[in-house]
Amino acid sequence: QAPDNFPPLRDEAAVRVLRGRMKGIQGHCNSCYMDAALFSLFSCTSVLDSMLFKPFLLCDRNVQSILRDEIVNPLRKTGFVRARSVMHLREQLTEKGQCSSFTNAEKDPEEFLNLIMHQILGIEPLLKLQSEGQKEQDCYCYQIFMDKQEDLVVPDVQQLVEHSFLSSDLKLVEIPSCFIIQMPRFGKEYKMFSKIIPSLELDITDLLLDSPRECCVCGDVATLECS
């Protein structure tokens, strides 16, 4: 455990601390979905550090302290989290979520995020989405759904997000404080893409609802949008 608080790893420090053998979050008993999600959310960014400290209205302080002291701080301090610490969190999630399979079965990352953010910590939804003519919907992360695109062999995240929003006729109602994106699903038998290139920056200009944009013909503010 690391009760002292450590900032997220950046630049050369991230490479030095996180690269090599016995680094990252140790997997055990189908924990890969949770290991990958926790690493993504906390290793190199502080945007969700409120989950570790803020006394939310419904907040379970025991789960919050396990997340902070047994997982996030050791990850940032030494670059390694043992499987026992993640299992401790999984046991608490099983108890709070009335779902016995959190300790042994593989879950969808979205199910894990909804449980820990909504039911256990009581965080407000991070995303507001709207489809044409439909009501606004709140969520904590966005999972990319799309048909196979033959021209996308090794896509980047920007391309996948744009294709997914376009095919689902979705828009972001507002600029999100945090945009958690789940890549296209795959299993042992099928992978939609063998590799996905991380986009270090994400341009959401065309994904925003009622956002002023430039006309591609004349350069003035656009009044029409063609998909």
UniProtKB/TrEMBL annotation:
<keyword id="KW-0963">Cytoplasm</keyword>
<dbReference type="GO" id="GO:0005874">
    <property type="term" value="C:microtubule"/>
</dbReference>
<dbReference type="InterPro" id="IPR038765">
    <property type="entry name" value="Papain-like_cys_pep_sf"/>
</dbReference>
<dbReference type="GO" id="GO:0004843">
    <property type="term" value="F:cysteine-type deubiquitinase activity"/>
</dbReference>
<dbReference type="InterPro" id="IPR001394">
    <property type="entry name" value="Peptidase_C19_UCH"/>
</dbReference>
<dbReference type="InterPro" id="IPR018200">
    <property type="entry name" value="USP_CS"/>
</dbReference>
<dbReference type="GO" id="GO:0016579">
    <property type="term" value="P:protein deubiquitination"/>
</dbReference>
<keyword id="KW-0378">Hydrolase</keyword>
<protein>
    <submittedName>
        <fullName>CYLD hydrolase</fullName>
    </submittedName>
</protein>
<dbReference type="Pfam" id="PF00443">
    <property type="entry name" value="UCH"/>
</dbReference>
<keyword id="KW-0493">Microtubule</keyword>
<feature type="domain" description="Peptidase C19 ubiquitin carboxyl-terminal hydrolase">
    <location>
        <begin position="24"/>
        <end position="204"/>
    </location>
</feature>
<dbReference type="GO" id="GO:0005819">
    <property type="term" value="C:spindle"/>
</dbReference>
